[in-house]
Input
Amino acid sequence: MKKHTTIRHRMRGGVAIELTLFTLFISMLSIGLVEGGRVLNTYSQLLEATREGARMALRQGDTAGIDEFVSQLTADMDGTTPSVNVKVKSLGPDTKTVTVQVEYDYYPFFIEPADMDAASLQKELFGGLSDPIRLTPKTTMPMQ
Output
């Protein structure tokens, strides 16, 4: 009878280890899903700002003030200030295109760009995981 109790006690320890590993796996998966959602949301906001900038250029007929307009649309974003690039390309005598591109350094939620001491420490611990993700949405539309 005593031997049966010992085996049961050993199994409880194994179950505790399995639960710990499972919880760790689920936690990492959840963090990855949340961070992926944040990246997609940020990219979507940037892409919408480039579309609005290109539409404004089409309505005006020129690119004056487009970079300021797109910067205002992205002003409430966390982290670094996006850089805006507006180009007009001539494809022929009557055909032009306008391209609005935004470059933004996205930092994961565990790294704040203002806290670069922590970022350098995390870079030592996690390697390249502390580097920002460069998001570069671009919209090109024909100008008439």
Notes: Helices lie at 2-60, 66-73, 116-126.
